[in-house]
Amino acid sequence: MAQGFRATRKGITARLEEPEKELLQKLFADVAEALAPEHPVSEDPLERLIGVSGDPSAPEDPALRRLLPDASQDPERAAEFRRYTERGLREAKIGALKQAALSLESQPVRLDPDQAQAFGRALNDVRLVLADRLGIRSAEDAERIGRYDDWSEIEDVETYMSLLYNFVSWLQETLMEALLHSLPRD
User: Fold this and answer.
1) How far apart are CA 126 and CA 25, in angstroms?
2) Which stretch of DSSP H or E encloses residue 163?
3) Is position 26 within any domain?
4) Is residue 86 part of a domain?
5) Contact 53, 87 (CB under 8 A)
6) Domain range for residue 114?
7) Which residue spans within the chain are E strands per DSSP?
8) Average of pLDDT values for 95-113?
9) 147-163: per-residue pLDDT in tens?
């Protein structure tokens, strides 16, 4: 049974069972794979060097659009912004997901402040993808999903994904609380 994150003298610490760690590593890997750039970098050598995207169109997958939203309602501005920033954003998100997966290899899971922030970003990206797949658009939707709490009652994919969403949400909440408790007191 998982014991959520808490602030300790040795860092932000959690105890997770092996199946829970494997599940999180799989979720992190799946989201990182989905974030892998779909389009090649620009043909221009300078643009390749600085990471300019060859195709500035928004992702078709709605979950990826949640992770990589348009920066403007103006389609031309959104495309231009995406062209210059999306590759770097994808790489940063993939880096955080991979770092979080590596953090799970110790028992207990112990994070320094930088690792904790990367772990929090990775959990958030997983939650956004799960929320999109579950159709969470309102407080009522979130409340409906929040009712699932018994792993022995999995009947279908939605129930399973709801339990995943709730587990990741709980873990992220304990991480954020531990980070708040680790702040210096003035």
Assistant:
1) 11
2) helix 157-182
3) yes
4) no
5) yes
6) 3-38+93-182
7) 3-8, 11-15, 109-111
8) 95
9) 888 888 888 999 999 99
